[in-house]
């Protein structure tokens, strides 16, 4: 091997280890891309997995924050790939995108169940105010108060705000863990999928929810078709509700219903 080649390899290794971007977020996106291109090619895939900086890839938005002049991030805050020929199962590693706020994969062929998304809740983490350039480790440790965040501040990050998955091939049930997203979720659009089982009662805990679209699935209450859970009536901010074309029957609970 020539010494030039060796030098080239060392330079490459140094260059890739010093990337300024959130490495765990980018590698979660690489797994997502591999899972969603098994038998298909995306309509648009500019940048995907060909450069280290996933913030520049098509459909990816990153955020950055500053507190008192100290910068944190960037991290992946939105993934928007509607109508782009995605096909495959959501990998479990998707939940590593722990600071994702907006997800739009509408009009694709995303399969599997949505349980991985229901884990992506807001978390309290220690932000180290002494370092400005450590996008991954900044968010590592959990905290309950500034007292167990010595040298840093306790801050809430992430939590899915918008889930748009209309017109895919998702199956399985909507778990009661949906309540994990109670602090943040404003839009839940799972219309035109193959979801089964009951609408979970815990849906009533999503106090920030503005839009709930479960149109055209096979949802029901318990084992027989039945009424829409009373708890939907507790969604005080709800402005749009569509549960048509399911196996539900009965009347809507009357509390706080949005005007039809
Ligand atoms: C930011 O600075 C202000 C005033 O200097 C201080 O009161 C506040 O605690 C600081 N906030 C953080 C998060 O360090
Ligand atoms: C979801 O669909 C897959 C096939 O695409 C199947 O293997 C799996 O059993 C289904 N899951 C449920 C809960 O129906
Ligand atoms: C649904 O039906 C199955 C089998 O018929 C039964 O084992 C299960 O306990 C039922 N679940 C509920 C919530 O009634
Ligand atoms: C809903 O469907 C169930 C099972 O078919 C039936 O027993 C019940 O009477 C129906 N309720 C209403 C309000 O139509």
TrEMBL record:
Coiled coil: none annotated. The keyword Signal applies. Residues 24-63 form the Leucine-rich repeat-containing N-terminal plant-type domain. It holds the Pfam family LRR_1. Residues 1-20 form the signal peptide. Keywords: Signal. The keyword Signal applies. SUPFAM superfamilies: L domain-like. InterPro entries: At_inactive_RLKs (IPR050994), Leu-rich_rpt (IPR001611), LRR_dom_sf (IPR032675), LRR_N_plant-typ (IPR013210). This is Leucine-rich repeat-containing N-terminal plant-type domain-containing protein.
């Amino acid at each position: 091997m020539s010494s030039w080649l060796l030098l080239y390899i060392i330079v490459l290794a140094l260059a890739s280890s010093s990337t300024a971007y959130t490495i765990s977020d980018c590698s979660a996106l690489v797994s997502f891309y591999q899972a969603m291109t098994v038998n298909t090619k995306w309509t648009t895939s500019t940048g995907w997995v060909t450069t280290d900086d996933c913030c520049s890839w098509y459909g990816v938005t990153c955020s950055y924050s500053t507190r008192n002049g100290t910068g944190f991030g960037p991290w992946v805050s939105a993934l928007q790939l509607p109508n782009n020929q995605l096909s495959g199962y959501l990998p479990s590693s998707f939940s590593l995108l722990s600071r994702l706020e907006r997800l739009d994969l509408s009009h694709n062929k995303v399969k599997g169940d949505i349980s991985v998304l229901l884990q992506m809740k807001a978390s309290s983490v220690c932000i180290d105010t002494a370092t400005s350039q450590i996008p991954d480790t900044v968010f590592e440790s959990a905290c309950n108060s500034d007292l167990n965040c010595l040298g840093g501040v306790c801050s809430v990050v992430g939590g899915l705000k918008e889930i748009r998955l209309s017109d895919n091939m998702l199956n399985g049930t909507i778990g009661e863990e949906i309540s994990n997203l109670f602090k943040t979720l404003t839009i839940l659009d799972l219309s035109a999928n193959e979801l089964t089982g009951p609408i979970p009662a815990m849906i009533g805990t999503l106090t920030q929810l503005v839009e709930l679209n479960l149109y055209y699935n096979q949802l029901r209450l318990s084992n027989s078709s039945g009424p829409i859970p009373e708890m939907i009536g507790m969604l005080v901010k709800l402005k749009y509700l569509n549960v048509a074309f399911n196996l539900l029957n009965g009347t809507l609970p009357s509390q706080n219903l949005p005007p039809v």
